Structures are given as C-alpha cells and as structure tokens.
Amino acid sequence: MGIPNPEAARYNSFQEFMAFSKSKDNAPSYSNLFSVRFATPPMMRNGGGNFNTGKMTVETTELDLLLDYYANTVQLPSKQITTGQVGPVGSPFKYATNTAFSQININFLIPRSMRTRVFFERWTQLMASDATQYTRYYKEYVCPTLAIYKWERGGGDYVYTDPKLIRALRQAGNPFLLSRKYKLTGVYLLSNLFPYNIGSVRLDNAQAKTLQMQVGFYYERYRFFTEDQFDDPGLVRDLTTPSGLDNTTLSDTSRNLVDSYNQLFDIVSSFGGFA
C-alpha cells in the first residue's frame, strides 16, 4: 500500500530547532514569574454588613500584596470535555456533551501577622458557619474574579525610559544597562471562586522552616487570554462572553417558548397527563 502522503512528513533538524526556539516568542515558557489578583467577595467588603474597618477588603489594603507576593505555587486551572458515546455497527465514537473544570490549589507563605491565614478563615466562616449552620447566598461569598497573570523575562518596556539615556547607554556599549521589564504574555480569569479547603500546617521544633498553607478553590469557569497577535477572539460569543452572560436563557429562546398554560397542557396531555 505504501506510505500515504509522504511529502507531508517533516524531517526534524536540531539546528533548525535551535534557531526556531531562540526566537523571543518561540522560546519555552517557565513555571516562575506569575502574579495573582483577588477581588474581594461582596460579604467581606467594608459596609457589606459583616465588617466596618475595611481590613478584609483586598484591593485597598496590604492583603492585595500579601496574596500576590506570598502565593508560592499556583496550580493552573484545567478543562475537560465530557462526552457521550454512540455505538453503531462497527467502531463506536464519542461526541462532546459539556465542559467540566477542575479545582485549583494555591500554596501561600504565611507572614508573621497571619493575615493570609485569617483572611481565608474569615471567608470560610462567613460562607458556611459552623455555629449557626447557615450558608450565605452564592453571590455574596464568591470572589467575582481571580486573575492569574503569566510573565516572561525580557520583551517588555525598557527599565530606563528616557530616550537620551537609552542612547547614551547604547553608545557606552553596556548592554546590561539596557535591560527590559518582564513582559505580560497571558492571563487566566477565573469567575465566581470560593475556598473549599484550607490545608493543615505542620509546626516542627526540629527545624525552622517558612510556614506555608495550601488553599483549594472551586470556581465556575475560566477564560484564557494572550496577546492579540497570537490569538483570535472569534466572531461567536462562546469564546469571550463573561460569566455573567454565559448559559443565559432569554425569553425568546426556543427552549422557552412554552409560555402559556394551554401550550403546556397540550404538551403534558400528549404524554398521558399529569397522573
């Protein structure tokens, strides 16, 4: 039978690979250089009915920096397409049915003030109280947005922005002084996130180590964005619609056209009535 379409086979050249991978945009990405930004859950905001000092408002306090700088490791979100299966005569095949998202874990260093720990303690206590056995409304306790930013070395703006100074540094022949800032290359936006687990922390007198805690989070969905030159947002809203509009059934949606009692009665009667 022979090899079908042999001209499509690519001979891999090591020299070509090295030249290709040395390109700024094709160089491998590394696991460090990231930052996280939490939005404050509504129930924890100043004036939200639970706090009046503003100490639990992330955006306007040191919590913003603590949660960012002390996020030691972050497990990026994953996505799985759920499937069904058709089994005709011959080989069965699968088809897509929905999308499922995994939980994520973030490992935080704990400062002496314990502010990162107390933030998640208060969050979980208010969300699901073990004293009153009540839970808050969903929209009150979820973090509207968690942004996980990925940075890469070089490619950003020059550290020195004065054109005259840059020209003088070039003429001096010192390339180390012409360093660039990190370049923002991507962001994961997680919507409606909340902690479901605060991991245990071990104290040990045998050896002094930095205290760390792992927090597990559930979320509704995420979206990933990169630079425009490497992305196409698409023409359909499935790719870029924010979570507030996802899965919305409007009054004129075909699934929602049964809006009168007579229509509903006719449909139910066709299946043998309500009995």
Give structural notes:
The protein contains six helices and nine strands. With 275 residues, the chain is α+β, with helices and mostly antiparallel strands. The protein has a domain of 165 residues: Pnp Oxidase, Chain A, CATH 2.30.110. The strands form two sheets. Strands 1, 2, 5, 6, 7, 8 and 9 form a seven-stranded antiparallel β-sheet that branches. Strands 3-4 form a two-stranded antiparallel ribbon. The relative contact order is 0.12.
Keywords:
single chain, 275 residues, alpha+beta, Pnp Oxidase, Chain A, seven-stranded antiparallel beta sheet, two-stranded antiparallel ribbon, 19% helix
Uncertain stretches: 241-275
Would you list the SSEs in sequence order as H and E?
HEHEEEEHHEHEEEH
Largest β sheet strand count, sense and barrel closure: 7 strands, antiparallel
In what range is the share of β-strand residues? 25-35%
Radius of gyration: 26 Å
| CA-based shape | extended
Q: Structural class, from secondary structure content?
A: alpha+beta
Per CATH, which architecture of the domain at 29-84 and 94-156 and 182-227? Roll
CATH topology of the domain at 29-84 and 94-156 and 182-227: Pnp Oxidase, Chain A
Q: What is the average of the pLDDT values? A: 79
Care to count the β-strands? 9
How far apart lie the N and C ends? 64 Å
* Helix coverage percent: 10-25%
**Total of DSSP H or I helical runs spanning 4+ residues:** 6
Report the top-level CATH class of the domain at 29-84 and 94-156 and 182-227. Mainly Beta
